[in-house]
Every structure is written in C-alpha cells, then in structure tokens.
Specification:
By secondary structure, this protein is α+β, with helices and mostly antiparallel strands. Among the domains are: 109 residues, Aldehyde oxidase/xanthine dehydrogenase, a/b hammerhead (Aldehyde Oxidoreductase, domain 3, Alpha-Beta Complex); 34 residues, no CATH class. 12% of the residues are buried.
C-alpha cells in the first residue's frame, strides 16, 4: 500500500495500437447520430424529419413516437427507491430539460450521411425559464424541471447515530464548515459505445461499458419488439 504502481496500458495507447469500438468496422455497419437539444429547458412545438428520412443512405429516423410500446423509459440508476423518480424517456417528446437531451436519432450507411440527415431534421423549440445553480433550484418559485412535481427536490434524507445533541453540548469546541465541491464529468477517450452483429439467434456484442449485462438485456428486448 502507498507504493507507486507502474502503468501497463500506456505504451499501447501512445503507439496508437489501442483497440476501441470505433476500430471494429464490420461489413454492413450502420452509424447512428443523435439530434440533441440546444436548450436547457424548452417545449418541443414541432419536429419534422421528412426531409432527413428521404436522403440517400438513410436507413431510419426515430423520434419519441416511434418508441411507444417498444422501449421503456431509462431507469434512474443509483437513485434510492424513496426518491422521486419521474419518467426519463430515451427521446424527448414534448419537453427538453437539459442541453444535449436526445430528441431524435438517425441511422445511416455511414457517419457522414447520418450527420447530414441529423442536420436536416427541423425541430421547433419554445424556450422556457431554466435554472442551473443547485441552490437557486431549491428556491421557492424556481423553474421546475418536471412540471408534475411540486419542486426540484429529488430526495431529502438524514441519519444520526448516538446522542448527537449531547455530544455537541459536551464538546470543548464546535466547528462548522461549508464545503462546495466542483462538478464532475467523466471524459473517456471514447464514449460509451457498442457493436452488435445479428446472426440468427446469436447476437455477439462488443461493448465499451462497465455494464455488459444491461446492454445485453436491452438489445434482446429491442430485437424482440
């Protein structure tokens, strides 16, 4: 413990010899591009994918209505059961609630065709008030992320052990401190990705995630829908 551990993965990556999902370019591979919201909070007043779907090389265009009855909303992973858990659809239907929220997807023969088609999708937004500061979001009257909830609090929880009040009363000194932590976002060299090859009843998958069983379950459910 406490000793420096020599990294073994660096030489492969520095020489460009690493293997990522993007390196697994198999015959007949299709690419998906996601159309994302540029707004932190907005109503979706219109979405027209007609021109995108008609472009050469586009295999399909999907919006929220195409997923009805086929794909369940994404569960809130790691959230205690007692917390408020509003539905989190894979594609926004009427409202977007954060910058980058997926609104539509395009599947095409290559990434360039998919990107061109995504840019051809017309989405009409009506911006709504948004709040990005956590403490401001707790204030009375703050814009609500989910209109069906009374406020922006997902969970209130506390715990104690022993005689807390008595321990403070007997203490020689009491120190209070307010800690403000930075926001954190993991930035991998390659985002989460997977390659699926469908061969009759066998569906080999290569996934760059720490949850292969969830990927497998979702792929099985999607293929049987």
């Amino acid at each position: 413990m406490g000793a420096a551990v020599r990294r073994r993965e660096d030489p492969t990556l520095l020489r460009g010899a690493g293997r990522y999902v993007d390196d697994l370019w198999l015959p007949h591979t299709a690419c998906m591009t996601v159309v994302r919201s540029p707004h932190g909070h907005a109503l979706i007043r219109g979405l027209d994918a007609t021109r995108a779907a008609a472009l050469p090389g586009v295999l399909t265009v999907l919006t929220a209505t195409d997923l009805d009855g086929r794909v369940d909303p994404e569960p809130a992973v790691g959230i205690p059961p007692s917390a408020r858990r509003p539905p989190r659809p894979l594609l926004a239907r009427d409202t977007v609630r954060y910058v980058g929220e997926p609104v539509a997807v395009v599947v095409a023969e290559n990434r360039y065709l998919a990107t061109d088609a995504a840019e051809a999708i017309a989405v009409e937004y009506e911006p709504l008030p948004a709040v990005s500061d956590p403490e401001a979001a707790l204030a009375s009257g703050a814009p609500r992320v989910h209109a069906g909830l009374p406020d922006n609090v997902a969970l209130t929880s506390s715990w104690s052990e022993g005689e807390v009040d008595g321990a403070f009363a007997r203490a020689h000194a009491v120190v209070s401190v307010r800690l403000r932590n930075q926001r954190l976002a993991g930035m991998a060299l390659e985002p989460r990705a997977c390659v699926v090859v469908r061969k009759s009843s066998r569906r080999p998958r290569t996934s760059l995630t720490g949850r292969p069983t969830r990927i497998a379950a979702n792929a099985q459910r999607a293929s049987s829908a």
